[in-house]
Amino acid sequence: MRELTKRLGWILLLLVAVAPAWANTKISVQQLKDLLTSMQQSKKTDEQEANKLKEVELNEELTGSVANSLKSYLPGPLTTVQVEILKEQSAFLAPPASNLPSAPVPDAAAQQTMLAKAADFASRVYAQNPHLSVTKTTIRFEDHVITTDSIGLKNNNLLLSPVQLAGTNVDQVETDNGVEQAAVSKTKTKWGANCRISEGEPGTNLGVIFHDASTSGKIAWLRWQMIEGKQTAVFSFAVDKEESHLDVNYCCFPKTTTADYVKLSLAPWAIQSVSTWNPFEKVVGYHGEFFIDPDTGLVVRVITRAEMKPTDWVLREDRRIDYGPVVVAGKAYLLPRDSITATETVPNAESDNATCTTRHTFLFASYQDYQLTGAH
After folding, report:
1. What predicted TM-score, i.e. pTM, was given to this entire model?
2. Residue 105 near residue 221 (C-beta atoms within 8 A)
3. 95: which of 27, 61, 205, 359 fits an S-S bond (Cβ 3.0–4.6 Å)?
4. How confident is the model at residue 197 (pLDDT cuts 50, 70, 90)?
5. Are residue 27 and residue 130 in the same domain, yes or no?
């Protein structure tokens, strides 16, 4: 029986080891629809369809409206979660070319007019948003950790399975002048334990991002795109580290040190490893996109991609924030409604006792019930 358990353990290890070779098969949104249609016609079970979807990755954005149109093809909750994961993972990509407007590229003067309106909105109007409180609901997706003790492998060894739902957290947060304050999370998770890393600090203020991009002088036309039925202008931007105010901040990573003990008459030198838990904080360059209403200059979406080094404990931090009109105490404001953060971290950091390598996390946050601070 022990030999059988051990053999099954090695089979599982082999499957996980080769997972990247097939888990990153890139397909289009249309190919995803074709795959779901084929599995429905073949009468695949919810579990079978969900497992198949873990093998693919989208190479273009699965928008919310298209994801909703796929619901009739989904046989159950497992498949529904996997489609949601695909949607969140693709949130930083452009939608299918067939879904993009065919309008001509605006001339240089028209582009400058849009950017001037957007700069005024970001630096003056948005920055004057009042002190607000809001309920922030965060859904966490991540690589699932499997302890191998239960399958007869070496103790303290961990395996990572494809990204899946890890939990939901609700916090009451505050924003001041459009800047979200760090939440005091009610979660009991010990950050750093079991290879789990904190959600990080809120993203940089919209006004600061626009200022950084303008200072770097690297804003360029990218494309037209439809967002909630409105033709929107998309500009790319890049910010050098010297002009950047993007602070990447996560908790917590282990660091191993060694301590020497005095040699006793009957004992050799003893060296003991001591691990401490430290945050990772670093100002970095970044790039991304502005999504601007060409008529009003309102910034309806911003994407930032931190430029990390291969030696950093945080290898990736991509953020997307979607803004929308919200009425608070009878007055309309443009405020964050949804945000998505994608990270790749090295949970073992500088520890000599590493139990897992990299970990991927996707955080989807929604904001509801904005209120003036102190209002009831």
Report:
1. 0.83
2. yes
3. 61
4. confident
5. no
